[in-house]
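Now for a chain:

_____
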Amino acid sequence: MRFFQQLKLALILLLVALPAGMACAHPHVWVTMETEVLLGPGNEITGFRHKWTFDEMYTSFAVDGLDTNGDGIYSEDELKPLAQTNIEALKEFEYFTFPFLGETKLPMKTPVDYRLDYKDKLLTLTFTLPLERPVSHDRIKDFSFAVYDPGMYVSLTFSGKEPVKIASAKPAACAARVGDRDAATAKAKAKVKETTLSQLGENIDPASNLGFQYAERVTIQCKP
């Protein structure tokens, strides 16, 4: 019942409410990501700006009935309640964003500047996710993060063009390195992932953190 009540209110609630048997295997939703790592005036890392574009089928399912004025356009105002509910629901999953300093996971604040946009039959969620405490420039070498769904309900994949950028308050000689972008390695990893998901079907326990095994870890390299 929860699934049917919440489906049109929040994209992400489908991830926790989908009844067994409604889909034959993970994932259920596909998201293409672009992320900016935010640097403050002292070239310290202050947080992230995420841009997540959902697949066409799920977008169609989610926006059904949200064109309240019937003009054929899903405006930002019409999508605002959905964006808010989406952000609130993501809190339970730590916004699928897992930053680390060494082996220590870093706490985050509540997202700000969030919105949903609809274009070319796709929904895009944009939001800024601040770190609770900035990572100083001299500690960036120990910083890393990954964006993934531990339970594999959502496939979160970085865009192939320029997936992670550095957004700095002033010029900074820093660059992001996204996982292992070697084509052969990526193809082999994808094949193993597909086989694993096919074997497990719906029997994936989110607590197992299986998604971590297939997430692309991002590191930041800065010149002194």
Remarks:
- The chain has one domain: 2-222.
- The CA atoms of residues 34 and 163 lie 5 Å apart.
- Confidence is low (pLDDT under 50) at residues 1-25, 195-205.
